[in-house]
Amino acid sequence: MSFGKIAPFRSRLLPMPECPRHACNEDELVTQVQALLADPVHQANPLREPLAHLLACNQVHQAQLHRLIRISDGYQYISRRQQENLEQQYERQLHRLEKIARISDRYQNSLRELSETLKQASLHDPLTSLGNRRFLMERLTQETERANRKASPYTLAILDVDRFKTVNDRFGHEAGDTVLCSIANAIADALREYDVCGRWGGEEFLILMPETPLDFALQIAQRVTQSIKAIRFEFLDTRISASVGLSTYCLGERFSDTLNRADAALLRAKVDGRDRIEA
């Protein structure tokens, strides 16, 4: 047996210091191994070379492990940054979309308001604020359909301001505009709530009286002309008057026929001396 040869070998090894349990760590163990390999006493020890090789391999593996750890940490850092960037991008995009939605809502509201404003402007006379000719034509169409459906005729009145051209020629168009605005207000105040009044053109006004027979429409026209005569202007030494032509709608006819009869009645009133109501 070879036990007698092992004893001298063991006597040449320095005893390994004991590490208390839970006290030694890897760095301390490496330091101890390095100290043993550096000790000249162990230069001839046959385990020195394998131990040195093992230590070198361990150092290589440790370096590779640290490199892998750094790479892993780097990937995790990049992943976190990417995730944060995605979240930030999402938040920015969400805020942008919310802003666009708010702008779109405001834009649509503005368009609706502008559309309504333009519609009102297209249907009203800018001087008197009464309905214009287009407005009156639409109301005539509607009222004609309703009159035929309910078998209840309406009456039209075309009113023309007497000698209005003289006012413009003597006092200018600004004075003429003042007269027209005052007459428009007087007409509106003298009518019933459901009557329709508008500026037909120039110094002419059209009055639409729904479901109104001719005799009652005549009373309303007289009230309107009296209201116009009551207006006073500082620059005029005479009262303003108006001539009126009346016509009642005949069921089934075109409203243009009713307008033509009212216009003809107005012409008779002008020819017969003005400041008159003809039907």
TrEMBL record:
<dbReference type="InterPro" id="IPR043128">
    <property type="entry name" value="Rev_trsase/Diguanyl_cyclase"/>
</dbReference>
<dbReference type="Pfam" id="PF00990">
    <property type="entry name" value="GGDEF"/>
</dbReference>
<dbReference type="GO" id="GO:1902201">
    <property type="term" value="P:negative regulation of bacterial-type flagellum-dependent cell motility"/>
</dbReference>
<protein>
    <recommendedName>
        <fullName>diguanylate cyclase</fullName>
        <ecNumber>2.7.7.65</ecNumber>
    </recommendedName>
</protein>
<dbReference type="InterPro" id="IPR029787">
    <property type="entry name" value="Nucleotide_cyclase"/>
</dbReference>
<dbReference type="GO" id="GO:0052621">
    <property type="term" value="F:diguanylate cyclase activity"/>
</dbReference>
<dbReference type="GO" id="GO:0043709">
    <property type="term" value="P:cell adhesion involved in single-species biofilm formation"/>
</dbReference>
<dbReference type="InterPro" id="IPR000160">
    <property type="entry name" value="GGDEF_dom"/>
</dbReference>
<dbReference type="GO" id="GO:0005886">
    <property type="term" value="C:plasma membrane"/>
</dbReference>
<feature type="domain" description="GGDEF">
    <location>
        <begin position="152"/>
        <end position="279"/>
    </location>
</feature>
<dbReference type="InterPro" id="IPR050469">
    <property type="entry name" value="Diguanylate_Cyclase"/>
</dbReference>
